[in-house]
Structure of tRNA (Adenosine(37)-N6)-dimethylallyltransferase MiaA:
Amino acid sequence: MNSKSKYLISVVGPTAIGKTALSIKLAQHFNTEIISADSRQFFKEMSIGTAAPTPEERAAAPHHFIQHKSIQENYNVGAFEKDTLTCLAVLFKKHDVVVMVGGSGLYVDAAVKGLDYFPEVDPKIREGLNNELESKGLEYLQNQLKDLDPKSYDTIAIDNPHRVIRALEICIGTEKPYASFLNKGKEKRHFKTITVGLKADREIIYNRINQRVDIMIEQGLLDEVKRLKPYQDLNALNTVGYKEIFNYLNGEWTLDFAISEIKKNSRRFAKRQLTWFKRNENTLWFDYEEKLATITAALEKEIRS
């Protein structure tokens, strides 16, 4: 191993695929520690519904950023990026390799690449653009963006009104193209990242999700959510597995329907995760049942190269 190089092994993939188990095996193989990039597992009040690592799993390898915050604290992706870089600086003094695991794509990207930072603009601009969307339609806004920032017009999800309005409000508020703010001012990473992705046929992923939800119910998800009912309006709890049970507790749904909705929304979430992670062309993808030795051999080869 090049003595100057430090490596972050980022384990990604859809929910319920087996990322936690693999990350622990990799941490043990490389005799290192794990950083969690799962934005739902940060909160100590949410264990069952987030499938947070068990005490036994956490004892098998040192973990960071698991249940270190309260749902009543404001914690966002910007703070996570800063905290992760600070943590990695310490860990890389002891280890040449650190493992990161999590299915929150934005948080993974924040750690690996950094976030784009945009200046604050007058909120009235967005208000005006929303009014124009209502009165003149999306095409009018798209043409406006084409005039102000052709590069963004060609690259953003142009059929998504939120994306178009976001780009336009920056163009109008700063009098500079939205594209000019992308990939600027990101703190250079002093480590190399190797991304390992776990995959399976969609039917297998969906079956694993359904089984996991049933296990969560058996483990006491209902009681966990009941305890959190006084805080149901907090942003941290506006998430799959919690919001559906709140609907049941509020008398809007039956329990069976709430459980079926958790399964459905988890499947949708997995689909979005896969779309996000497949954008990274350098990911080393492995079947979820692949032998550990095959994965570690591929990683050792990357590290040596």
About this structure: The mean pLDDT is 94. DSSP finds 13 helices and six strands in the chain. Residues 255-277 form the longest helix (23 residues). The radius of gyration is 21 Å.
